Amino acid sequence: MARYDFASDNTAPAAPEAVAALIDANRGFTPGYGADAISARAADLIRAWLDADAEVRFVASGTAANALSLAALCRPFEAVLAHEHAHVLTDETGAPGFFGHGLGLIGLPGPSGRIDPASLESPLSAPDVSFRQSVAALSLTNATEYGTVYSNRQIEVLAAPVKARGYGVHLDGARLANAVAAGFDVRALRTAGIDILVVGGTKAGMPPTEAVVIFDRDLARRFDARLKQAGQLPSKGRFYAAPFIGMLEDGALLRHAAHANSMARRLAAACPFPVRHPVEANGVFVEMDDARLSALQAAGWFAYRFLDGTVRFMCSWATVEATVDELSEALRRIA
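Above: the chain's sequence. Below: its structure in token form.
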């Protein structure tokens, strides 16, 4: 039987703190559609974590969070800039365009998942013409798809020319906790030019839930109607919100993220294959040919071949040293 321990950080079970908060939320009767005290408490904790006065909503998936956020930043005849391997371009089945009623996506290059700032110049300076979707927003990802982490300064440098033109900036934080555990200052986001942020829950050790944080309150107008139309305003919304209470109240979110990051470093240090990208968060990307990947899978370990041809191993809050060492030994046997 194949083992999926390192296939993704979303294959792990939910953390006990998140589950306990869900159980606590399952008591008594509350208002629906996010108008309950549990959702309000979760939103307050997120605002405190970010040190920001922002609107907060909870949805079921990162795809929904990203797509609806980008739809709020763009009109249908406009486009979003993102790294060429960003999740919004490669793994969301056109959801941004679907919920944005046709908005476009433009991929930009950059090493290890980070956009090269020089690549912004051409699309931002392109003239508006009737036959092309002109740029209206930028989407960033932290930690990136390759497990690297933008510094706060790098985020500011990328956001500045976009904001200077009056355009919007979205941050996909599916693994934001891992970035923070690696040293990223999440409290600086409110002044970095970010208009709308997704705080990942699922990959951080929660049941399916993501938080949409709207820094630009003008974007919050009728956002609940946007969520309702998309099927992302559930009547029992407290069950999306509650896991954030359990993960934020005693610091479990960052504690678990730091553990996942440390397990990735342990795996990278023991890996007999070349590691292609810096190990800054909870992902390890190694160079491995098809024969050895097949041998690894035959030994019971499932791993993805990623977009750049590397083989990806993701560590989670539930990864333990013994399992890392077991995988490391399996890798040594096939190397």
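The domain at 252-334 is CATH 3.90.1150.10 (Aspartate Aminotransferase, domain 1).
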